[in-house]
Amino acid sequence: MNWFTSDLHLGDDRMNLYARDMFFKNYEDFETTLFKNWNDSVKEDDTVYVLGDIAFDASSCLKMTQLKGKKILIRGNYDRDDMTAKPNVTQHLSKVFYQIYDDIDIELNGILLHLTHFPTDCVNYSFNITGHIHGLWRVQRNMINVGIDAWNYRLIDENRLMFFYNAIKKFYNKNVFAGELSCNLEINY
Description:
The chain is α/β, with parallel strands linked by helices.
């Protein structure tokens, strides 16, 4: 089974930044719930694609070893020395992740998927799986946000991902993609 998630921000006490303070007392409470949800769902031989922003510090990064599955990282801004990574986080990534990429194309059920942390790095030749924006939105016309905050602090399995892919491609209409309507594109207030 393949799983997808992003924006864990382990060790990050800025709970209000992600609206986690509405559901959890502190980041330890969040992490306890996240780790339980992860390990209750993922099997040791499953593959987990983590689309960036793992941890706020090195010790929190190493906590990822407690989580099941073969973990593959698509680096986000908190996982790159040239962006917002804290000291010593990036040197520990290879201890946690089987493979590390900036972005990657994979095939799932005959569908090409482009995995990237940033929605702005999406491509038009493939369906995009992204993170970075936490719980701001779940789906767009050509992408799904797998941020942990958007999915009730649970990972998305490949079956659920394919369910939303099929809904986007076959059934959703302009009411779902209201952000594309002229009233949302030409704001005059």
